[in-house]
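thoughts on these tokens:
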Amino acid sequence: MGVLLFGALPAFAQAPRLEVGVGVGFASAEGDPPPALPMASGGLVVWFNERFGMSWSASFGPRTEDQPIGLGAPADFPRRVGDRKIVSSGQLFLARGTFRYRRQIWRPIGVVLGGGLLVNGGYSETYVLAESLTQITRHKTRERWGGFSYEALIHVRLVRRLTVQTGIVTDFALDRFYYQPTVQVAVGLR
């Protein structure tokens, strides 16, 4: 998960125009793989005025090893020619650009809503394929896609330029949909 949704808060007139943040979370997928993965994120927001801004953020998921990579497959593999076994997956990457709207709800609590484009999504997978019952080959694929991104975040200002945020980011294309609950820390810069 993890995407950056940040927003400056209480006194908008004194709020930083530029924010940089990092976050952690978890990405769960609907549709095609990948499965759920831990995520780290980073991003930048430029606020044009008290309420509107633009952000660029990216989320990264690690590679997961389902089995040791190599031709030593389990004893029950393969059962027939053409059997395929995934041995590692992951390296999920999601980069997005969104327009943001922010509003103070109650003195140090605010909300940020955003929408825009998923500019670059990527995911890799390594699998072994049974060419025959005695010959197994290893293959690696990398998928890339684009789509749309929506964000909703509640944030609390801790000190003048430091906020903690929690919320959800959704990235989707025609064949996949990612839910990314996230917790982040953002620092305002002038």
The chain has no helices and nine strands. The domain at 12-75+94-117+148-189 is CATH 2.40.160.20 (Porin). The CA atoms of residues 42 and 154 lie 17 Å apart. Confidence is low (pLDDT under 50) at residues 1-13.
